[in-house]
Write a structure and sequence with these properties.
The protein is mainly α. The chain is built from 3 helices and 2 strands, in the order E-E-H-H-H. It has a domain at about 20-50. A hairpin with a 5-residue loop joins strand 1 and strand 2 (about 15).
Length: about 55
């Protein structure tokens, strides 16, 4: 999911941590992908109209 989600935190050992809001985004991305949307199209949707879903920043 490169470019779709940023981790909430990264530990010193490189482990990526996600908060509940990020987990909800992951679920949405998975549902869209399972419905036939390619990840590239999902990324474009987030960048075009739903920037708040990209990473919450």
């Amino acid at each position: 999911m490169v470019g779709l989600l940023e981790p909430t935190e990264t530990t010193p050992t490189g482990r990526r941590l996600f908060d509940e809001k990020c987990i909800e985004r992951i679920r949405l991305i998975k549902k869209l992908n399972d419905s036939g949307y390619p990840l590239r199209a999902i990324r474009e949707l987030f960048l075009e109209g739903r920037g708040d879903l990209k990473g919450g920043k």
